[in-house]
Amino acid sequence: MRGGGVSGVGEGLGKVEVRLRWDPSPLGEAPRHLDIIAATYSTDDLYGRPVYVVHSESRSPDGTINMSRHSETGLGFGFVEVMVLEFERLASSYGRVVVGVAIHQDGGPRAFGDISNAGVLVVEGYRELLADDFTRVAGATAATVAEFVREDSGAWELREMVRGFDSDPVVFAAEMGSAVQ
Is the separation of the CB atoms in 14 and 124 below 8 Å? Predict the structure, then answer.
């Protein structure tokens, strides 16, 4: 794991990309399909239900969080799925965004340990903020990777949040922002 647990001091985060990679399934096996998911929380309820969830089939209502690249199979050519988060444009009514990755279970039960060459990278411009290969959550079927929090000053900061879940993408989207017990 490279990167840091917290973004740089001062201005806060602007436009951030979350990039995901994985290799395709071996010949004869069902495709392996992973998705980046972001859940956005109100400043009034930072750990409650998400105000909205963004994934490959959706984008935020104001266009500040969206998928710029999507893959349903992994291609083995680096980062094949990318989500863009524009924190400088996100309304002040939002105070927290949690980003995670879920594995579709339609080809049989799969965990991160079953996915070859899986990895996530969070960048702002050319600056790497976080990198992880999911080995800490090898037995999980979904995992959060980052938590973005609006500070009292209004600036956004990143906190590493690699935490495994044993759920499908729909259930994961509802539970991914829950408070850590």
Answer: yes
In 3D space, the residue among 100, 83, 80 whose CA is nearest the CA of residue 32 turns out to be: 80
Average pLDDT of span 16-41:
88
Q: Strands, E, within 2-118: which ranges?
A: 15-21, 34-42, 52-54, 65-69, 81-86, 94-103
What is the identity of the amino acid at 59?
R
DSSP three-state, residue 173: helix
Contacts of 95 (CB under 8 A, 6+ apart): 41, 42, 43, 46, 149, 150
| pLDDT cut 90: percent of the chain above it | 64
DSSP 8-state code for residue 88: G
Q: pTM for this structure?
A: 0.89
